[in-house]
Protein backbone atom coordinates (compact mmCIF):
# COMPACT_ATOMS: atom_id res chain seq x y z
CA UNK A 1 0.00 0.00 0.00
CA UNK A 2 1.44 3.34 -1.04
CA UNK A 3 0.70 6.58 0.73
CA UNK A 4 1.12 10.24 -0.08
CA UNK A 5 1.89 11.52 -3.52
CA UNK A 6 4.18 10.24 -6.20
CA UNK A 7 6.62 13.06 -6.94
CA UNK A 8 6.92 14.23 -10.52
CA UNK A 9 10.19 16.00 -11.23
CA UNK A 10 10.34 15.40 -14.94
CA UNK A 11 10.58 18.35 -17.33
CA UNK A 12 7.07 17.81 -18.64
CA UNK A 13 4.39 16.85 -18.22
CA UNK A 14 4.65 19.02 -15.16
CA UNK A 15 2.43 19.12 -12.09
CA UNK A 16 -1.04 20.42 -12.92
CA UNK A 17 -2.20 22.83 -10.20
CA UNK A 18 -5.36 21.85 -8.35
CA UNK A 19 -7.13 24.97 -9.66
CA UNK A 20 -6.41 23.93 -13.23
CA UNK A 21 -7.38 20.31 -12.61
CA UNK A 22 -10.73 21.40 -11.24
CA UNK A 23 -11.28 23.72 -14.20
CA UNK A 24 -10.66 20.83 -16.59
CA UNK A 25 -13.45 18.86 -14.98
CA UNK A 26 -16.47 20.23 -16.83
CA UNK A 27 -19.27 18.42 -18.64
CA UNK A 28 -18.84 17.95 -22.37
CA UNK A 29 -20.17 20.85 -24.36
CA UNK A 30 -21.24 21.74 -27.86
CA UNK A 31 -18.22 22.87 -29.85
CA UNK A 32 -20.49 24.85 -32.17
CA UNK A 33 -22.48 26.55 -29.43
CA UNK A 34 -22.93 30.31 -29.53
CA UNK A 35 -21.22 30.39 -26.11
CA UNK A 36 -17.88 28.94 -27.19
CA UNK A 37 -16.31 32.16 -28.57
CA UNK A 38 -16.70 33.83 -25.17
CA UNK A 39 -14.26 31.20 -23.89
CA UNK A 40 -11.93 30.87 -26.88
CA UNK A 41 -11.49 34.41 -28.16
CA UNK A 42 -9.99 35.68 -24.89
CA UNK A 43 -7.68 32.65 -24.89
CA UNK A 44 -6.26 33.63 -28.28
CA UNK A 45 -5.85 37.19 -27.06
CA UNK A 46 -4.19 36.20 -23.79
CA UNK A 47 -1.87 33.64 -25.33
CA UNK A 48 -0.41 36.47 -27.38
CA UNK A 49 0.53 38.19 -24.13
CA UNK A 50 2.49 35.14 -23.02
CA UNK A 51 4.39 35.05 -26.31
CA UNK A 52 4.69 38.86 -26.28
CA UNK A 53 3.32 38.87 -29.80
CA UNK A 54 1.15 41.89 -30.52
CA UNK A 55 0.86 41.95 -34.28
CA UNK A 56 0.67 38.29 -35.19
CA UNK A 57 -1.52 35.53 -33.89
CA UNK A 58 -1.45 32.25 -31.99
CA UNK A 59 -2.82 28.95 -33.26
CA UNK A 60 -3.90 26.17 -30.90
CA UNK A 61 -3.64 22.62 -32.19
CA UNK A 62 -4.98 19.51 -30.49
CA UNK A 63 -1.54 17.90 -30.60
CA UNK A 64 1.60 17.75 -28.54
CA UNK A 65 4.42 20.19 -29.33
CA UNK A 66 5.67 18.06 -32.22
CA UNK A 67 2.50 18.89 -34.14
CA UNK A 68 3.22 22.62 -33.88
CA UNK A 69 6.79 22.00 -35.09
CA UNK A 70 5.27 20.40 -38.17
CA UNK A 71 2.61 23.11 -38.61
CA UNK A 72 5.29 25.81 -38.56
CA UNK A 73 7.27 24.15 -41.35
CA UNK A 74 4.39 23.04 -43.56
CA UNK A 75 2.61 26.37 -43.61
CA UNK A 76 5.54 28.60 -44.49
CA UNK A 77 8.13 26.52 -46.35
CA UNK A 78 8.36 24.36 -49.46
CA UNK A 79 10.20 21.13 -50.18
CA UNK A 80 13.77 21.98 -51.12
CA UNK A 81 13.86 25.26 -49.18
CA UNK A 82 17.18 25.92 -47.52
CA UNK A 83 17.15 26.23 -43.74
CA UNK A 84 19.82 26.61 -41.07
CA UNK A 85 19.53 24.51 -37.92
CA UNK A 86 21.69 23.25 -35.06
CA UNK A 87 21.51 20.18 -32.88
CA UNK A 88 22.87 19.63 -29.42
CA UNK A 89 20.41 17.30 -27.70
CA UNK A 90 17.57 14.91 -28.41
CA UNK A 91 14.92 17.53 -29.20
CA UNK A 92 17.00 19.69 -31.50
CA UNK A 93 18.02 16.42 -33.23
CA UNK A 94 14.40 15.45 -33.69
CA UNK A 95 13.49 18.82 -35.19
CA UNK A 96 16.33 18.49 -37.71
CA UNK A 97 15.13 14.99 -38.44
CA UNK A 98 11.60 16.24 -39.08
CA UNK A 99 12.85 19.02 -41.38
CA UNK A 100 14.79 16.46 -43.43
CA UNK A 101 11.83 14.09 -43.56
CA UNK A 102 9.60 16.92 -44.78
CA UNK A 103 12.05 17.58 -47.61
CA UNK A 104 13.83 20.75 -46.53
CA UNK A 105 17.42 21.33 -47.59
CA UNK A 106 18.93 21.44 -44.11
CA UNK A 107 22.29 22.79 -43.06
CA UNK A 108 22.57 21.33 -39.56
CA UNK A 109 25.43 22.41 -37.33
CA UNK A 110 26.38 19.83 -34.73
CA UNK A 111 27.30 21.17 -31.33
CA UNK A 112 28.54 19.30 -28.27
CA UNK A 113 25.68 18.16 -26.02
CA UNK A 114 25.96 20.70 -23.25
CA UNK A 115 26.23 23.87 -25.32
CA UNK A 116 23.49 25.58 -27.35
CA UNK A 117 22.71 27.51 -30.51
CA UNK A 118 26.12 28.30 -32.09
CA UNK A 119 25.75 31.99 -32.92
CA UNK A 120 29.24 32.29 -34.42
CA UNK A 121 28.63 29.40 -36.82
CA UNK A 122 25.20 30.76 -37.68
CA UNK A 123 26.76 34.13 -38.44
CA UNK A 124 29.37 32.56 -40.71
CA UNK A 125 26.70 30.71 -42.72
CA UNK A 126 24.38 33.73 -42.89
CA UNK A 127 27.21 36.07 -43.93
CA UNK A 128 28.12 33.70 -46.76
CA UNK A 129 24.53 33.50 -48.00
CA UNK A 130 24.71 36.64 -50.15
CA UNK A 131 21.85 35.45 -52.37
CA UNK A 132 19.57 35.07 -49.33
CA UNK A 133 18.70 31.51 -50.21
CA UNK A 134 18.29 30.46 -46.59
CA UNK A 135 14.63 30.94 -45.85
CA UNK A 136 14.60 30.11 -42.16
CA UNK A 137 16.91 29.83 -39.18
CA UNK A 138 15.83 27.44 -36.43
CA UNK A 139 16.74 27.68 -32.75
CA UNK A 140 15.82 25.50 -29.80
CA UNK A 141 15.50 27.99 -26.97
CA UNK A 142 15.68 25.33 -24.29
CA UNK A 143 17.12 21.91 -25.06
CA UNK A 144 15.28 19.77 -22.54
CA UNK A 145 17.58 16.78 -22.95
CA UNK A 146 20.69 18.61 -21.79
CA UNK A 147 19.31 21.49 -19.71
CA UNK A 148 20.71 24.12 -22.06
CA UNK A 149 19.15 27.50 -22.81
CA UNK A 150 20.15 29.55 -25.85
CA UNK A 151 20.24 33.20 -26.81
CA UNK A 152 17.36 33.87 -29.20
CA UNK A 153 17.90 37.63 -29.28
CA UNK A 154 21.39 36.82 -30.53
CA UNK A 155 19.93 35.05 -33.57
CA UNK A 156 17.90 38.17 -34.38
CA UNK A 157 21.00 40.36 -33.99
CA UNK A 158 23.10 38.36 -36.41
CA UNK A 159 20.37 38.29 -39.06
CA UNK A 160 19.93 42.05 -38.71
CA UNK A 161 23.67 42.61 -38.85
CA UNK A 162 23.68 41.00 -42.30
CA UNK A 163 20.28 42.38 -43.38
CA UNK A 164 19.26 38.79 -43.96
CA UNK A 165 15.52 38.23 -44.44
CA UNK A 166 15.30 34.62 -43.16
CA UNK A 167 12.46 33.81 -40.78
CA UNK A 168 13.32 32.69 -37.26
CA UNK A 169 11.70 29.50 -35.94
CA UNK A 170 11.96 28.86 -32.20
CA UNK A 171 11.27 25.73 -30.24
CA UNK A 172 10.05 27.08 -26.92
CA UNK A 173 8.32 23.91 -25.76
CA UNK A 174 10.19 23.78 -22.45
CA UNK A 175 10.83 27.51 -22.07
CA UNK A 176 7.84 29.63 -23.07
CA UNK A 177 5.76 30.64 -20.03
CA UNK A 178 8.69 29.70 -17.78
CA UNK A 179 11.64 31.75 -18.97
CA UNK A 180 11.84 35.06 -20.77
CA UNK A 181 10.55 35.04 -24.33
CA UNK A 182 9.81 38.13 -26.43
CA UNK A 183 8.50 37.34 -29.86
CA UNK A 184 8.07 40.88 -31.19
CA UNK A 185 11.24 42.30 -29.68
CA UNK A 186 13.35 39.39 -30.88
CA UNK A 187 11.65 39.23 -34.26
CA UNK A 188 10.72 35.58 -33.93
CA UNK A 189 8.42 34.44 -36.74
CA UNK A 190 7.21 31.05 -35.52
CA UNK A 191 7.38 30.03 -31.87
CA UNK A 192 6.29 26.59 -30.68
CA UNK A 193 5.08 25.71 -27.19
CA UNK A 194 3.22 22.83 -25.58
CA UNK A 195 0.55 22.67 -22.90
CA UNK A 196 2.35 20.22 -20.63
CA UNK A 197 5.31 22.33 -19.49
CA UNK A 198 5.16 25.96 -18.37
CA UNK A 199 1.45 26.14 -19.17
CA UNK A 200 0.80 23.59 -16.39
CA UNK A 201 -1.77 21.57 -18.33
CA UNK A 202 -1.86 17.94 -19.41
CA UNK A 203 -0.17 17.10 -22.72
CA UNK A 204 -2.38 17.45 -25.78
CA UNK A 205 -2.54 21.07 -26.81
CA UNK A 206 0.19 22.87 -28.72
CA UNK A 207 0.58 26.56 -29.36
CA UNK A 208 2.13 28.13 -32.42
CA UNK A 209 2.66 31.86 -32.23
CA UNK A 210 3.29 33.43 -35.63
CA UNK A 211 4.40 36.88 -36.72
CA UNK A 212 2.78 38.96 -39.44
CA UNK A 213 5.82 38.10 -41.59
CA UNK A 214 5.17 34.37 -41.13
CA UNK A 215 1.52 34.88 -42.06
CA UNK A 216 2.63 36.73 -45.18
CA UNK A 217 4.98 33.84 -46.01
CA UNK A 218 2.00 31.53 -45.64
CA UNK A 219 -0.05 33.67 -48.04
CA UNK A 220 2.57 34.47 -50.68
CA UNK A 221 2.64 32.84 -54.09
CA UNK A 222 5.67 30.63 -53.59
CA UNK A 223 4.79 26.94 -53.59
CA UNK A 224 4.37 25.42 -50.12
CA UNK A 225 4.27 21.95 -48.68
CA UNK A 226 1.00 20.11 -48.73
CA UNK A 227 -0.78 20.33 -45.40
CA UNK A 228 -4.23 19.60 -44.17
CA UNK A 229 -4.78 19.06 -40.46
CA UNK A 230 -2.35 21.84 -39.56
CA UNK A 231 -3.38 24.29 -42.27
CA UNK A 232 -3.22 27.93 -41.17
CA UNK A 233 -5.84 28.76 -43.82
CA UNK A 234 -8.37 26.38 -42.27
CA UNK A 235 -7.63 27.72 -38.81
CA UNK A 236 -7.88 31.33 -39.98
CA UNK A 237 -11.25 30.66 -41.57
CA UNK A 238 -12.74 29.66 -38.21
CA UNK A 239 -10.57 31.00 -35.37
CA UNK A 240 -11.58 34.63 -35.76
CA UNK A 241 -15.12 33.63 -34.88
CA UNK A 242 -13.86 31.56 -31.96
CA UNK A 243 -14.30 28.17 -33.63
CA UNK A 244 -12.10 25.45 -35.09
CA UNK A 245 -12.00 23.47 -38.33
CA UNK A 246 -12.43 20.22 -36.37
CA UNK A 247 -13.56 19.13 -32.93
CA UNK A 248 -11.52 21.13 -30.42
CA UNK A 249 -10.63 19.85 -26.93
CA UNK A 250 -12.97 22.20 -25.11
CA UNK A 251 -12.11 20.90 -21.64
CA UNK A 252 -8.55 22.01 -22.23
CA UNK A 253 -9.77 25.51 -22.92
CA UNK A 254 -11.28 25.74 -19.45
CA UNK A 255 -8.01 24.53 -17.97
CA UNK A 256 -6.02 26.93 -20.11
CA UNK A 257 -8.21 29.82 -18.96
CA UNK A 258 -7.23 29.16 -15.35
CA UNK A 259 -3.59 28.44 -16.17
CA UNK A 260 -3.32 31.78 -17.99
CA UNK A 261 -5.07 33.54 -15.09
CA UNK A 262 -2.50 32.04 -12.72
CA UNK A 263 0.41 33.18 -14.90
CA UNK A 264 -0.99 36.71 -15.08
CA UNK A 265 -1.87 36.84 -11.38
CA UNK A 266 1.74 36.01 -10.55
CA UNK A 267 3.01 38.25 -13.36
CA UNK A 268 5.14 36.84 -16.16
CA UNK A 269 8.31 38.53 -14.93
CA UNK A 270 7.78 37.05 -11.48
CA UNK A 271 7.13 33.65 -13.04
CA UNK A 272 10.51 33.91 -14.76
CA UNK A 273 12.19 35.12 -11.55
CA UNK A 274 10.70 32.19 -9.61
CA UNK A 275 11.98 29.72 -12.18
CA UNK A 276 15.42 31.29 -12.00
CA UNK A 277 15.52 31.10 -8.22
CA UNK A 278 14.30 27.51 -8.10
CA UNK A 279 16.79 26.50 -10.80
CA UNK A 280 19.65 28.26 -9.05
CA UNK A 281 18.87 26.39 -5.82
CA UNK A 282 18.91 23.08 -7.69
CA UNK A 283 22.21 24.01 -9.35
CA UNK A 284 23.74 24.85 -5.99
CA UNK A 285 22.42 21.56 -4.66
CA UNK A 286 24.09 19.70 -7.51
CA UNK A 287 27.36 21.50 -6.86
CA UNK A 288 26.96 20.81 -3.13
CA UNK A 289 26.84 17.09 -3.91
CA UNK A 290 30.04 17.49 -5.89
CA UNK A 291 28.29 16.68 -9.18
CA UNK A 292 28.32 18.46 -12.52
CA UNK A 293 25.66 19.57 -14.94
CA UNK A 294 25.61 18.49 -18.57
CA UNK A 295 25.51 22.21 -19.49
CA UNK A 296 29.17 23.00 -20.04
CA UNK A 297 29.14 26.62 -18.85
CA UNK A 298 26.87 28.91 -16.82
CA UNK A 299 25.82 30.84 -19.94
CA UNK A 300 23.97 27.72 -21.06
CA UNK A 301 22.21 27.01 -17.75
CA UNK A 302 18.52 26.32 -18.18
CA UNK A 303 16.08 27.64 -15.60
CA UNK A 304 13.56 24.88 -16.36
CA UNK A 305 15.56 21.66 -16.28
CA UNK A 306 18.92 20.49 -14.98
CA UNK A 307 20.63 17.48 -16.54
CA UNK A 308 22.93 16.10 -13.86
CA UNK A 309 25.90 13.91 -14.66
CA UNK A 310 26.28 10.93 -12.36
CA UNK A 311 29.75 10.09 -11.04
CA UNK A 312 31.97 7.70 -13.00
CA UNK A 313 30.93 4.09 -12.38
CA UNK A 314 27.34 4.95 -11.43
CA UNK A 315 24.49 4.12 -13.80
CA UNK A 316 22.01 6.99 -14.09
CA UNK A 317 19.32 4.53 -15.13
CA UNK A 318 19.78 2.75 -11.79
CA UNK A 319 19.34 6.09 -10.03
CA UNK A 320 16.06 6.62 -11.90
CA UNK A 321 14.82 3.12 -11.13
CA UNK A 322 15.67 3.40 -7.44
CA UNK A 323 14.05 6.83 -7.18
CA UNK A 324 10.90 5.49 -8.80
CA UNK A 325 10.64 2.18 -6.97
CA UNK A 326 11.92 3.06 -3.51
CA UNK A 327 11.12 6.74 -3.20
CA UNK A 328 8.00 7.27 -5.33
CA UNK A 329 9.75 9.81 -7.48
CA UNK A 330 10.17 10.32 -11.19
CA UNK A 331 13.19 12.18 -12.52
CA UNK A 332 13.82 12.71 -16.21
CA UNK A 333 15.98 10.09 -17.91
CA UNK A 334 19.11 10.61 -19.97
CA UNK A 335 18.01 10.61 -23.60
CA UNK A 336 19.87 8.99 -26.52
CA UNK A 337 23.64 9.34 -26.02
CA UNK A 338 23.06 10.57 -22.45
CA UNK A 339 21.26 7.40 -21.36
CA UNK A 340 22.88 6.08 -18.19
CA UNK A 341 25.03 9.20 -17.87
CA UNK A 342 22.59 11.82 -16.65
CA UNK A 343 19.33 12.13 -14.84
CA UNK A 344 17.27 15.28 -15.06
CA UNK A 345 15.38 17.34 -12.54
CA UNK A 346 12.57 19.29 -14.14
CA UNK A 347 12.00 22.50 -12.21
CA UNK A 348 9.26 24.21 -14.14
CA UNK A 349 5.62 24.94 -13.81
CA UNK A 350 3.72 24.79 -10.54
CA UNK A 351 6.69 24.41 -8.23
CA UNK A 352 8.21 25.87 -5.08
CA UNK A 353 11.45 25.67 -3.12
CA UNK A 354 10.21 22.92 -0.80
CA UNK A 355 9.50 20.73 -3.80
CA UNK A 356 12.99 21.33 -5.18
CA UNK A 357 14.47 20.38 -1.80
CA UNK A 358 12.47 17.17 -1.90
CA UNK A 359 13.83 16.45 -5.36
CA UNK A 360 17.40 17.01 -4.22
CA UNK A 361 16.96 14.96 -1.09
CA UNK A 362 15.52 11.99 -2.98
CA UNK A 363 18.18 12.35 -5.67
CA UNK A 364 20.85 12.08 -2.96
CA UNK A 365 19.33 8.90 -1.55
CA UNK A 366 18.93 7.30 -4.96
CA UNK A 367 22.48 8.26 -5.92
CA UNK A 368 23.94 6.79 -2.74
CA UNK A 369 21.85 3.64 -3.15
CA UNK A 370 23.16 3.35 -6.70
CA UNK A 371 26.74 3.47 -5.44
CA UNK A 372 27.66 7.16 -5.64
CA UNK A 373 29.98 8.43 -2.95
CA UNK A 374 28.28 11.64 -1.94
CA UNK A 375 27.43 12.90 1.51
CA UNK A 376 23.74 12.71 2.29
CA UNK A 377 22.44 16.19 2.90
CA UNK A 378 25.24 17.96 1.07
CA UNK A 379 23.11 19.05 -1.86
CA UNK A 380 20.06 19.78 0.23
CA UNK A 381 22.09 21.95 2.61
CA UNK A 382 23.54 24.00 -0.23
CA UNK A 383 20.08 24.57 -1.69
CA UNK A 384 18.59 25.35 1.73
CA UNK A 385 21.25 27.93 2.26
CA UNK A 386 20.25 29.58 -0.99
CA UNK A 387 16.48 29.30 -0.61
CA UNK A 388 16.34 30.36 3.03
CA UNK A 389 14.53 33.65 3.55
CA UNK A 390 17.00 35.99 5.17
CA UNK A 391 14.74 39.01 5.11
CA UNK A 392 14.16 38.83 8.88
CA UNK A 393 17.87 38.83 9.71
CA UNK A 394 18.49 42.45 8.79
CA UNK A 395 15.83 43.69 11.21
CA UNK A 396 16.65 41.13 13.87
CA UNK A 397 13.01 40.10 13.94
CA UNK A 398 13.76 36.40 13.82
N1 LIG B 1 10.92 20.35 -28.05
C1 LIG B 1 11.34 20.30 -26.80
C2 LIG B 1 12.39 21.27 -26.36
C3 LIG B 1 10.79 19.38 -25.91
O1 LIG B 1 11.21 19.33 -24.65
C4 LIG B 1 9.81 18.48 -26.38
C5 LIG B 1 9.24 17.48 -25.47
O2 LIG B 1 9.63 17.28 -24.38
C6 LIG B 1 9.41 18.57 -27.70
C7 LIG B 1 9.97 19.53 -28.51
C8 LIG B 1 8.40 17.64 -28.25
O3 LIG B 1 7.17 18.01 -27.72
P1 LIG B 1 5.99 16.96 -27.53
O4 LIG B 1 6.53 15.81 -26.77
O5 LIG B 1 4.99 17.79 -26.78
O6 LIG B 1 5.52 16.60 -28.89
From TrEMBL:
Please state the Enzyme Commission number of this protein: 2.6.1.45
Q: Which residues bind substrate?
A: 344
Q: Name one GO biological process term.
A: glycine biosynthetic process, by transamination of glyoxylate
Kindly list the cofactors needed: pyridoxal 5'-phosphate
UniProt keyword Iron-sulfur present: no
> Has UniProt tagged this entry with the keyword Transferase?
yes
CDD domains linked to this entry? AGAT_like (cd06451)
Residue ranges of domain Aminotransferase class V in the record = 60-288
Q: Which PROSITE patterns match?
A: AA_TRANSFER_CLASS_5
Database matches in InterPro entries:
Aminotrans_V_dom, Aminotrans_V_PyrdxlP_BS, PyrdxlP-dep_Trfase, PyrdxlP-dep_Trfase_major, PyrdxlP-dep_Trfase_small, SP_NH2Trfase/AEP_transaminase
Q: Which reaction does it catalyse?
A: glyoxylate + L-serine = 3-hydroxypyruvate + glycine
Q: What keywords are assigned to this protein?
A: Aminotransferase, Pyridoxal phosphate, Transferase
Q: Which residues carry this modification: N6-(pyridoxal phosphate)lysine?
A: 197
The biological pathway it contributes to is: One-carbon metabolism; formaldehyde assimilation via serine pathway
Task: Kindly list the GO molecular function terms attached to this UniProt entry.
Answer: alanine-glyoxylate transaminase activity; L-serine-glyoxylate transaminase activity; L-serine-pyruvate transaminase activity
| Group of enzyme by EC | transferase
Kindly give the Pfam families that the UniProt entry links to this protein: Aminotran_5
Q: Which family does the entry's similarity section mention? A: Belongs to the class-V pyridoxal-phosphate-dependent aminotransferase family.
Q: Protein name, please?
A: Serine--glyoxylate aminotransferase
